[in-house]
Amino acid sequence: MDEWIQKYGPLVGIYCGEVPCVLLSDLDAIKECLVKRSHEFRDRVPLLINAEPLKSSLLGIKGEEWKMVRSVLNPTFSNAKMRMISRIIDDCTNTTVQIVDQRIASSAGDVDISAMAQGLTMDTIAKSVLGWKCEYQRNPEDPFLTSLRETMIGADNPITDVTMALPAVRWFLAPILPHTHYGKMFICVTESVREVIKARRLLEDENREKESRAVDMLQLMLDARHKSNAKNDNSCSDRLSMTDQHVVSNCFIALGGGFETTSLTLALLLDELARNPEEQQKLYAELSSALPGDVTPEVLFDKLQDLKRLEMVINEGLRKYPPLVFFTARMCYPDTELAGKIIPGGTRVIVPTWNIHRNPDLWPNPDRFNPERFSEGWEKEKHPASYVPFGMGPRECIGKKFALLELKMAIFKLVRRYEFSLSPQSASALKFEVPLISINPVKNIVLHVKRRCT
Fold first, then answer.
1. Where are the chain's structural domains?
2. E strands present in 214-255
3. Are 421 and 448 in contact (CB under 8 A)?
């Protein structure tokens, strides 16, 4: 793709199967598309498979329906709500620390960081989204979480391959999907979500005290849905209302999206710190002096906002390894002028995040892990479209705050307690594959982990 951009410029026309697409790397045009003219480029590209649970999620709905659901869900991810959720994340990271201590003792210090990160994020997501009382880190064979993991990792399969090449086929594959192995995993996950919703409704019917209600994303979604729909009822409005299917579908997206991308980013960040011990030491110096001993999750949440080096490290990790490389894309309707060219209606406008983040004109020596790129004031020096790991504009990833909080809390706990270095299994440079829209290391990341002296 770099060759195409270098040869043909910042706007390259290609075909994905039979669908016309444009690779857009002109930063001003990206900002225009995603922010200034987002009302013209409001919809994401069609789903590869037009079926539930994706169909009614923020990824699948369009127009006014998307606007309504997004506005209802936005408060779920406010700073105040994230502060409430921080207790769940803190509990899960404490479990990770206990497990890493055990593995250090039994494996001469070598730890499968990829597996560790997956266990942590699966636990965190399941508990934060559904209040699911699972211990995936201690019980990796849990049926529900195994189905979820297979569903997300299994996104690269013959069905999606066919729909990529022949998008029209997706309408015919939707009825077949429930009968496939992939579809059955979808059903397993969504039915589990429905059961939790049913249980929550029973609690509400029994008039439980407010203090006894769960504090997780599902409950926050249900509360937001109830308030929004009640407001519509009282005003006799014809506005769209949020349904149970919207809740189920967006819980599914939160479970899946939060698992794969965050676990990958955490593993890659720890790998980079192991490869760059001087950066790890700078980060440790900040973290070790930030707070005395153990503190409550709420105190830690407040303090995390002030840790500049930690933020720089995470930003640089997301620059070097944006987890979703082809995810930021919009539909062009109708014929539209962009970057001095006429884009035909029906064209998919794709922002090649990986290529932008690795562009040496924007980020000198892009393969080097250098958190100093994000030192204070970087936003004023850089074009806003030069760094888009979560997208940009009204459709920026709704879970951005949650993902960053999980990364910050995990790295805070892990780097304060352990020193990470390369093991013989990880000494060579990482190799990646891109099954569909995300990057994945070909092999699991294994690092040597040593308990720091206190």
1. 2-451
2. none
3. yes
pLDDT average, residue stretch 181-188: 74
Interval 139-154: pLDDT, tens: 877 776 676 666 665 5
Task: Tell me the pLDDT band of 447, cut-offs 50, 70 and 90.
Answer: very high
Per residue in 147-176, pLDDT (tens digit) is 666 666 555 556 666 666 666 666 666 777
Task: Give the Cα separation of 400 and 440 in Å (integer).
Answer: 20
Are the C-beta atoms of residues 104 and 446 closer than 8 Å to each other?
A: no
Residues 323, 389: contact at Cβ < 8 Å?
A: yes
**11 closest CA partner among 42, 37, 33, 35:** 33
User: Binding residue per annotation — 134?
Assistant: no
**Token pair 């996104």 is at which residue?**
155
- The answer to whether 83 and 119 have CB atoms below 8 angstroms apart is no
* CATH class of the region 2-451: mainly alpha
Q: What are phi and psi of 451, to 5 degrees?
A: -70, 130
Whether the bond into 334 is cis, omega within 30 of 0: yes
Please compute the mean of the pLDDT values over residues 372-398 and round it to a whole number.
Answer: 94
Coil, strand, or helix at residue 327? coil
